[in-house]
Design brief:
The complex is a heterodimer of chains A (163) and B (932). Chain A has 163 residues and is of the alpha+beta class. Helix content of chain A is 20%, strand content 42%. Chain A is built from 4 helices and 10 strands, in the order H-E-E-E-E-E-H-E-E-E-H-E-E-H. The longest helix of chain B has 36 residues. Chain B is built from 28 helices and 35 strands. Chain B has 932 residues and is of the alpha+beta class. In chain B, a hairpin with a 2-residue loop joins strand 12 and strand 13. In chain B, the strands form 7 sheets. Chain B has a 6-stranded mixed beta sheet with strand order 10-14-15-13-12-11. Chain B is elongated. Classes of the chains: A alpha+beta (163), B alpha+beta (932). Chains A and B meet through strand 4, strand 7 and helix 4 of A and helix 10, strand 17 and strand 18 of B. Chain B: GO terms for molecular function: phosphorelay sensor kinase activity. Chain B: It catalyses: ATP + protein L-histidine = ADP + protein N-phospho-L-histidine. Chain B: InterPro entries: Bact_Chemotaxis_CheA, CheA-like_dim, CheA-like_homodim_sf, CheW-like_dom_sf, CheW-lke_dom, CheY-like_superfamily, HATPase_C_sf, HATPase_dom. Chain B: Its EC number is 2.7.13.3.
Chain lengths: 163, 932
Amino acid sequence: MSVLEHKTNSDAGTASDMIQYVTVVIGGQLFGLPISQVHDVFVPESVTRVPMSAPEVQGVLNLRGRIVTAINMRRRLHLPPLEDEQMMAVGIEYKLESYGLVIDTVGEVLTLPAASSEPNPSNLDRRWAEISGGVHRLDGQLMVILDVDRLLGAMFTEPMVAA
Amino acid sequence: MDDLLREFITETNESLDVVDVELVKFEQEPNNATILNNIFRLVHTIKGTCGFLGLPRLEGIAHAAETLMGKFRDGAPVTQEAVSLILISIDQIKDILAELEAAEGEEPQGDDSELVGKLEDMSAKADAAMASGAEPEAEAAEEAPAEADAADDDDPDQTLERPLRPGEVSLDELERAFQETEIEVEVADVEIVEAEDIAEEVDEPAPAPVAAKTEAKAEPLKKAAAQKSGTEGGEKKAAGGSVSNKSIRVAVDTLEHLMTMVSELVLTRNQLLEIVRRHEDSEFKVPLQRLSNVTAELQEGVMATRMQPIGNAWQKLPRIVRDLSQELEKPIELEMIGADTELDRQVLEMIKDPLTHMVRNSADHGLEGPDERRAAGKPEKGTITLAAYHEGGHIIIEVRDDGKGIDVEKVKSKVLERGLATEAEFEKMTDSQIHKFIFAAGFSTAAEVTSVSGRGVGMDVVRNNIELIGGTVDLRSTTGKGSSFIIKIPLTLAIVSTLIVEASGDRFAIPQLSVVELVRVQTNSEHRIERIKDTPVLRLRNKLLPLVHLSQLLGIYEGEDVDQAIDSDNGFIVVMQVGSQTFGVVVDGVFHTEEIVVKPMSSMLRNLNMFSGNTILGDGSVIMIIDPNGIAGAMASHASSSVAESEDEEQEGLQRKSMSSQNAISLLLFRAGAPEPKAVPLSLVTRLEEFEVSKIERSNGRDLVQYRGSLMPLVYVNDGDGHKTEGTQPMLVFSDSGRSMGLVVDEIVDIVEDRMNIEVGSERPGVLGSAVVKERATEILDLGYYLPQAFEDWFMRKEMDIEALTKKVLFVDDSSFFRNMLTPVLKAAGYDVTTCIGPQQAFELLENGDKFHAIVSDIEMPEINGFEFCESLRRDPRFRNIPILALSSMVTPASIERGRQAGFDDYVAKFDRPGLIAALKDVFSNELGVAA
């Protein structure tokens, strides 16, 4: 897909086959979350860790009076932790509860045609593939679509199986 | 209409709806005791309340239904008919309630008398049906099974165990007679149930009633009902709605949601106020002020919907006590203290029933009759005291009587009778422990079952209801002086008073309700931590309290050794009591107590049973709330696991002792390419060398150093790794027969003696797997992979004579590590090696006719050890002469002797590679020599 095509598409952003993505960077990789699912972008501060929880659960934090479960996306994707840098978080809602996905940085909002997304490459790391809803080829880089339902859904079943 | 009655009607209607649903469920699962108990309790409450409100009709029906259900509880089979009967009687109660409501609380006179007449008639019918006399309670128990059994039969006529008396009709006929009209059927069925009841209630049941009479009676009733609906129809509708509509019952969830929203609103308002404060003369100021006021009022209002004075729950009691006093002929005075103590509405609702039960119990069982009191030198009038007060974030409600106290002997005999405990168990119990049996399910000390209390639903229901809301109930009783029940409940379910503690740097909130006390421990103080073996305990007032550190329970201890988590010199012990379990939780610090609003945990975290919720503290941070039940559970399992652990350790210790000489090997720990440690057995390493980086030369596409007069190729642990760019480069040198290889490493860490158990195998070439070395996961490298990288012919060259190449060697070892380690060595010496994981597999191969020139066998193997393996081979003439070498790390004169006896040709120490090769050479040359 060319940049030009991308531009013309964003002009016609209201079209129903266009999806707006909030882009985030996790460990150098660009990810996109459908904007409809992103409620907040915030700096995760004073996160209280939750003993005995899944390793991806960074903890719980107070976001304007709501208790949000923070999920460390680097840990989720088995990436080394980001050191000495301020992490960011995107607030999403899943099954009426608030979650914060802790990521490296938040980028811009992109409007991309739904049709231009491609399925996951078959050789994608299984741990990545299970939370990826496809890939968009952008100019110069790839954007992996974060499938929030799969991301969080998988985390629900795991501890329950364990229990 | 009086408030009491209005409340009763609303409440009873609700209860009846529940009973309806539960009964249907019960019919499907007749063995579900929970449902039955629930129904039984509801009906019991209705009955009880009716009795005191002067509603004999309702009380009668409820009592009868309860009696029938009591039979189910006693094990009578549940039949559809029986359940239908109860359902119909429930409907009847509802009808009466509707009439009651329409008539503004007055039971319509006409209806009442007619019904009583019918009830009397029907009572005898029921008597007949149940083959019982006029004696009510005594025979109730026998009647029930008979009735229930009969109801099981296809033919309802069989309900009779004796022929019909003159003038009597069978239930079946009766039912048929009433089936003509709907209303009649209903009445008839109801009456049957009521009849049973009346048998108990009236002294002289009318004998020999006739069906005709019943039918005749039914007619006016029907008329009356019809007339009622005709004349009062509209009015009834309006009135019917009136009571239920004046007060709307709102689900607590709704209120809770409202409260959360208000909290959010308050927070937002505060933010806005803060912003406006910074901008002088803002036009927002005035409307914001108004918003602020409204918000404050809203908050108060919402809070008010939740908090109510406990007096609301006591409203019914004076009347109940008055009536009880008359019924039991005991003068009773009810004293109420602290009626204005406020508590959460939800909690209030939950303790209403238990309180009523308890007061009734005190009046019925606790207080003596006036004569007895006078004899005991007490005032004739007994006193029941109800007191409520706040205590440390809880509400304490005390129900106290000055009666005779609980009769321990009576309780004991009852407990024995019910099989709840044995004499031997009593021996060890204190009186107060025995007293607690009155809270056991199905326990009742009243010698006879009265309509007041004594069905044994009372106290266990009381306890259950109180525990449901996180409360506790305690009992103190002094013989002759009276007893007192102390209920401790949280103020509200939404707000919990907690103790904020710290463990491993994190703060946690422990609900105060389960905290008994806090103990500060210091080595020199009166309270100090002692250890029994490794189990820490605290001696507290001559009792030993098991201790565990909170961070240990939560698995967040960060230090080296979990057993050292408890610092004997300094610490706080939170003494907790959960149920009957008392234990000490050691924490690093105790901050303060804080009233917190419990927020439910995210469903993702709800599976963690250590926490009951979380909340936002005043400083804005989130804190996890400890669930005392979870902690108690973990405590119990911790104790058992530590027992198991110590057993394991003992086992392991024994094993270690026996294995120490075998499996402890020297490992060289180093790092290469990654921070994780890697290891190789030290015995395989020839030298550790460091070379100046400048000495590393590159030739023919590979790095080399000049070493001892020849070129030594360098091999990297990971493909693509490079050597350092400056300074010196450490490496491990492996030499064999004049050839050397340098394995480039980043850093040599240590040499350790440790057992090496490869716990996780590896698919990656060059890595045998991972083992725990010095308590760290360590990669064990496979040298067999690296050696050919230096010299492709490493394993091929050597002084391979033709003979050696043709020698087939069977190598038996259960350890994959040694198989992997020694196979290359043997191959390197030119042998054709076949490996087996144990003697069993070796036998199979040999049986299949595979020929081997020699066998090298490990000694320490599960199932069949090397000695046995060798002995059995030697017993077989085919293998008598095959050379067998023993390979063991346990090389002692005794074991060598044992090996010789078993028939081994030689005994070689593991890791003695040259020794092994030499021994093999030896046996073959011997063989050749012999052959020659």
